[in-house]
Amino acid sequence: MFIRGGGVYKKYQIKVHKDPPEKPTFKQFERFLVKSPIKLKLVDVHSDAFQETLNTSFELYKKYQINIHNEPETKEDFLDFLVNSPLKKTVNQSSPEDGFGSFHQQYWLDNKLIAVGVLDILPYCVSSVYFFYDPDYSFLSLGTYSSLRELEFTQRLSKSSPLLKYYYMGFYIHNCPKMRYKGNLSSSYLLCPETYTWVTLNDGESGAI
């Protein structure tokens, strides 16, 4: 699923939260998503900085898997699934400042790690691999929040790497409640598995794919 930018926050607030059109403003967007008390830190999975927070990330992942998916996980499971990436960090003239490769985007609140977005930064897109969070902060709707932050992140990277202009959210299963939030971001596209062409999400839901 790819998502293009352009008034996404405003469209989301109007469609999902039924805000009147005049309510979602740039100042509100900036206060909520740019000047948020939640601080983001991007770390390369092959870096020393990542190793310093590895145990903290794993404990958060383990808590998430048990409480949300009822799946106990070992540290080896965590490393195999979200850390041991075949992608190597690459920095060149076409890459953003942090380069291409696999990263963990950490969400910190009051010096506590509350969520992690696992991202692959590629030449043409940012691919959202996985997202896990502290269940104690479920009331913050961190899944939706992270999607908006990752979309903003993609737009920011595109300024220095013009070919990198898509945000890939992975698989979408319409009858899976945990994936429904992906369809709330507009405009969204699905790849047809038979024709390998992109169609809008609404077309896909109506039987076009």
From TrEMBL:
<protein>
    <recommendedName>
        <fullName>N-end rule aminoacyl transferase C-terminal domain-containing protein</fullName>
    </recommendedName>
</protein>
<dbReference type="InterPro" id="IPR016181">
    <property type="entry name" value="Acyl_CoA_acyltransferase"/>
</dbReference>
<dbReference type="InterPro" id="IPR030700">
    <property type="entry name" value="N-end_Aminoacyl_Trfase"/>
</dbReference>
<dbReference type="InterPro" id="IPR007472">
    <property type="entry name" value="N-end_Aminoacyl_Trfase_C"/>
</dbReference>
<feature type="domain" description="N-end rule aminoacyl transferase C-terminal">
    <location>
        <begin position="57"/>
        <end position="192"/>
    </location>
</feature>
<dbReference type="GO" id="GO:0005737">
    <property type="term" value="C:cytoplasm"/>
</dbReference>
<dbReference type="Pfam" id="PF04377">
    <property type="entry name" value="ATE_C"/>
</dbReference>
<dbReference type="GO" id="GO:0004057">
    <property type="term" value="F:arginyl-tRNA--protein transferase activity"/>
</dbReference>
